Structure formats: C-alpha cells, structure tokens
Amino acid sequence: PKIVVNNMFNKRVMLFNIQMIDGLGLMANGMKSGLSIVQALGMVKQEMPNPLAQEFDYVLKQQQLGVSVEDAFQNLAKRVPSEDVNMFVTAVVILKETGGNLAETFETIVFTIRERVKVEQKISAMIAQNIAQGAIVFCMPYGLVAMFYFSDPEFLAPLFNDPLGWILVAVAFTLQMVG
C-alpha cells in the first residue's frame, strides 16, 4: 500500500540525512588530504552503510557513464527530497562553477545540519513534555472524582442525585472538553 511505501521512503530519507552528516565529514577530510570529489565519494561509498553508500554509488556510476558530477548530484537531489541534500547539491554545483574550498563548505554544511538536528530534537522533547502535561491535567479531575467516590461515596452523592449537581457536572465536563 502507498502508506507503507511512503513510510518506508520517509524512513530511508531520514536515515540518509543522519548518515549524510558523517559522510560529508568524511568527504571533507578526504578532500583536505588531496582527494578529488569523485575519489572522496568513492571513499564514502566504501566506508558508510546504506542508504548513503547506495545513493553515492549511483552518483559515481552516473559520473562513470559520462554524466557530469553536477548533474549526477542534481539527480541525487531529485531522488532524495531533503533540504539538507538540496543544500549540499547547491553548494557543490556553485563551487564547481565558481571555484572554492569544497572541504570547508562541507564542514560548514555538517555544522549547520548538526545544529538544525539539535534544535529539532529539543523542540520534539518540549512538545512531548507539553503533551504529557496536558494529558495529566486532563485526567486529574476524573482521578479525583474516582478517588473521592471510592473513599467516601456519600461526599459525591449530591453531584449525581441533585439537578444542580447535574448542571455543575455538565458545566465542568464542558469546560474540561473545551480546555
């Protein structure tokens, strides 16, 4: 089913983005030691696990078949729809045309991606904390009613036996749902 395939694809893209941090660091170090971009790609293909190795292998195979490195990277950006990949591909294409230090650019991209991941993880943790707090606040009145009911049922009897109590319960329930 399409939902399962999309879920698997999104997991693959997420794993690719995570591995790309280490892969770009490896490429930057290789280029600092004098390797070309194609040789650095080959090194990443050998050292890193899939899906990064597989996608970079596709880039290398396209380059070996005569496709320019820039076009092979743009094909990578089409296959792996991600902001990080687009940033990487754009940097490679621009620096290949204008010249510049690819290793330094890769290190900057790695730093940017790491910081973005940290911020996303912090936001996710804060959202999870707020959801937990909301669930606790939502369940607290029901827990208190259950506790009072089991400890002293006569204490809560007016809420369920008197029409004014019914109105108060309805208002409290309505406000709880609105909240």
Features of this protein?
179 residues; 0% strand; mainly alpha; single chain
Explained architecture:
There is one protein chain. 88% of the residues lie in helices and 0% in strands. It is an all-alpha fold and 179 residues long.
Distance between the first and last residues' Cα: 38 Å
Main structural class: mainly alpha
Helix content: over 70%
Question: Averaging pLDDT over every residue, what do you get?
Answer: 88
From the alpha carbons, calculate the radius of gyration and give it in angstroms. 28 Å
Please tally the helical runs, counting DSSP H or I stretches of 4 or more residues: 8
Shape: rod-shaped
Q: Could you spell the SSE succession in H and E letters?
A: HHHHHHHH
Strand fraction equals: under 5%
- How many E-type strands? 0
Major sheet? none
Low-pLDDT stretches: none
Helices and strands in order:
Layout: H1 2-32, H2 37-47, H3 52-64, H4 69-79, H5 83-98, H6 102-151, H7 153-161, H8 163-178
Helix pairs in contact: 1-2, 1-6, 2-3, 3-4, 4-5, 5-6, 6-7, 7-8
Concise summary:
Helix content is 88%, strand content 0%. By secondary structure, it is mainly α. The radius of gyration is 28 Å and the shape is rod-shaped.
